[in-house]
Amino acid sequence: MSDTIRLEYEVPGDDFTRAGEASSDVKRLLKKLGVAPGAVRRVAIALYEGEINLAIHGGGGQIVVEVSPEEVSMVLSDQGPGIPNIELAMQEGWSTAPDSVRNLGFGAGMGLPNMKRNADEMTIESEVGVGTTVRMTVRVA
Amino acid sequence: MTVKEVADRLGFTLLAGEESYEREVESVYCCDLLSFVMGRAPADSAWVTVMGNVNAMAVSTLADTACIVLAEGAALDAQAKEKADQNGIAVLGSRQPVYETARAIDRLIGG
Ligand SMILES: Nc1ncnc2c1ncn2[C@@H]1O[C@H](COP(=O)(O)OP(=O)(O)OP(=O)(O)O)[C@@H](O)[C@H]1O
Ligand SMILES: [Mg+2]
C-alpha cells in the first residue's frame, strides 16, 4: 500500500481550455514512473474523455487517481444532471452535447465508448438531479 | 521520416512545437471530431484536421500523435500555439484540403 500514489483534481465546469490538465498531469507522472507506453496511452485516453464529460455534461467535478504498481484506478464524480439512460449514453454516436461544444470538436458520442474500450473495468453510477460517478481501472502490470 | 522532413518536402509551414520536429511520422489519420481521434488515431501518426484549438492540442498529446497538420490553411489560435510550444506538440500548416494533404503525406512516407 505504501507505494500507492494518490492524486486529486478539481475540474472546472465550463472552461474547456483547462479540461485535459488532469489527464496530461497523470500521463506525465506515469511516463516518469516507467509505466509501459500502451498502458499510459489507455489511461490518458480514458481519463481525458471522463474529464471532458465532467466539464461539459457534469458542470465540473472531482477526479481521484490512485497509482499502484499493478493498476491505475480513476474515480470521476460530479453533482450535475445525471444520466437518465446509461445504456443509451454508452452507445456509439449518442450525444446531447450542445452546439457550442460541437463547434470545438466535441459531441461525437464516442467518449464513453472510448473509456469502456480503454479501461479494463468501468462502472457508472448515476442519479438524475444528483450526479454521476464513473470508476475505471487500467492494469499496468 | 521526421515531422520536419515531411514539412520541408511538402512545403508545409512549421507553426509550433519545435521540440517535436524530429519525431518520426509512421502513418496518417484524418478527422475533426475529437473523440474519434482519441479512439482511433494511431500513436505516431500525422493527424490532419482543421481544428486548431487548445482541445485539439490536448488530444494530440494524450493520443500521442507525431504531429498535427492543419489543412485548408486553418488557423492555429493563439492559446493553442502557446500550449503547443509549451508541450512540444508539432503543428504544421498546409494550404491544401484535408484529402490532398493526407494523400501527399501518405505517399511521402511510403504508406
Ligand atoms: N457526467 C455526465 N453527466 C451527465 N450526462 C453525461 C455525463 N457523461 C456523459 N453524459 C451523457 O452521455 C452522453 C454520451 O457521452 P459521450 O462521452 O459518449 O459523448 P459526448 O460527450 O456527447 O461526445 P464526445 O465524448 O464524443 O465528445 C452525453 O452526450 C451526455 O448526454
Ligand atoms: Mg464525452
Query: What proportion of the residues of chain B form beta strands (DSSP E)?
Result: 15-25%
The oligomerization state is heterodimer
* Cα separation of the termini of chain B: 11 Å
Rg of chain A over CA atoms, rounded to whole Å, is: 14 Å
Instruction: State the major sheet of chain A.
Output: 5 strands, antiparallel
Count of domains of chain A: 1
Low-confidence stretches of chain B: none
The count of strands of chain A amounts to 5
Short description:
The complex is a heterodimer of chains A (141) and B (111). With 141 residues, chain A is α+β, with helices and mostly antiparallel strands.
Describe this structure in words.
The complex is a heterodimer of chains A (141) and B (111). Chain A has 141 residues and is of the alpha+beta class. Chain A has a single domain, classed as Heat Shock Protein 90 (2-Layer Sandwich). Helices cover 34% and strands 27% of the residues of chain A. Chain A contains five helices and five strands. In chain A, strands 1-2-3-5-4 form a five-stranded antiparallel β-sheet, with helices on one face. The two termini of chain A are 16 Å apart. In chain B, α4 (78-87) links the parallel β4 and β5 (91-93). Chain B is α/β, with parallel strands linked by helices and 111 residues long. The model of chain B has no long low-confidence stretch (mean pLDDT 97). Chain B is globular. Chain B has a single domain, classed as HprK N-terminal domain-like (Udp-n-acetylmuramoylalanyl-d-glutamate--2,6- Diaminopimelate Ligase, Chain: A, domain 1, 3-Layer(aba) Sandwich). Helices cover 41% and strands 18% of the residues of chain B. In chain B, α2 packs parallel to α3. Classes of the chains: A alpha+beta (141), B alpha/beta (111). The interface between A and B is medium-sized, with 24 and 21 residues. Adenosine-5'-triphosphate is lined by residues 49, 53-54, 56-58, 78, 80-83, 89, 94-97, 106-112, 132 of chain A.
